[in-house]
Give the backbone structure.
Amino acid sequence: PLTAPTTATWSRGELLAVLLTALGKFVLMDWLAWRLLYIGSACTAWLGYIGYRYRQNPAVLRQWGLTRAGFAQSFRRLFPLLLLCLALFYAIGAYRGTNILSWHILPTLLLYPLWGIIQQFLTIALVAKNLDVTPLPRTAVVFLTASLFGIIHYPHGLLILGTFLMALVYTSLYLRGTNLLVLGIFHGWLGAFFFYTVLARDSWLEVFKVLGVGS
């Protein structure tokens, strides 16, 4: 169990904070197109929260799956699935004529996993895990979590579908003990490749063009 004040208090506060983070995405990223500001602010704020909770209760990192425990086993078990998905994305991109692979994907593959870890932390460590201690059946928790993760990627249809399917798998795996760091890293790699193949979008340019480093 989590530490004082109470598990229920932490759960309510975390779910509310995740909701506000999601609303911020629609305002800052979708409406104002401040992608770098939003991602940077969200990462900073949630890393700060993780540090705050760790200082209060060091065991919370293990409860969230943010330690090395199970990392190697989870990585080995999921790596073939990662390769299969990457091959599928490339094949879809080749069929649709949307593969735009360039050197931009290399720094994206290095940086995106951090954002992937934060997204998975919000989605499955806070939303799914907090819902999993309620009377809801686990299947409902998985479906609801995946639906929320898909909706947050509105209005991009393919992205909604892709993230919904990924969240179904990831939430199920996480609630069965899969390491969160592995899920976040794989999220980053899959997301980066999905953008440059299926979506024909250069996420490096989209995020960093405001700094003049994307060309």
Residues 1-5 have pLDDT under 50 and may be disordered. The radius of gyration is 17 Å.
